[in-house]
Specification:
The protein has 126 residues and is mostly helical. The chain has two domains: 60 residues; 65 residues, no CATH class. It contains seven helices and no strands.
Length: 126
């Protein structure tokens, strides 16, 4: 029920209500999954960048795709964007993350300089 309500509220742009809904259902976990993502975006859309960044800083590391999304969620931070690109290009093509990697690829302004997972596996800092 918490996920359905959050989805309904976020799709209509009602971020502060979505955040209240998640709080009521204790839906902000430690990793950057739906609840914490909603909290970050709710704070960002409420002109609370420090609150959004605090949610990111407080997140526990997760799978590579989560860490890539967390890194890219820091607006204006080029180093974080580079870290995100390094993380997502290291994902294996068989990770079932085609939609995620495509969205992340189009979000990274320097993506044309990097091989995509289909072009070959690349380890961060190579």
């Amino acid at each position: 029920m918490a996920a359905d309500g959050t989805l309904a509220l976020t799709t209509t742009g009602r971020w502060s209500e979505a955040l209240r809904h998640i709080d009521e259902h204790r839906g902000i976990g430690r990793r950057i999954l739906d609840g914490r993502q909603t909290a970050v975006l709710a704070r960002a859309t409420a002109s609370d960048p420090p609150g959004a960044l605090a949610q990111l800083d407080d997140a526990e590391p997760g799978a590579r795709w989560e860490d890539a999304g967390t890194a890219l969620s820091r607006p204006g931070d080029r180093q974080a964007a580079e870290q995100a690109a390094d993380l997502w290009t290291a994902l294996e093509p068989g990770d079932r993350l085609a939609v995620f990697t495509t969205r992340l690829d189009t979000t990274d302004p320097g993506h044309t300089r990097r091989p995509t997972p289909r072009q070959g596996h690349r380890q961060p800092n190579e």
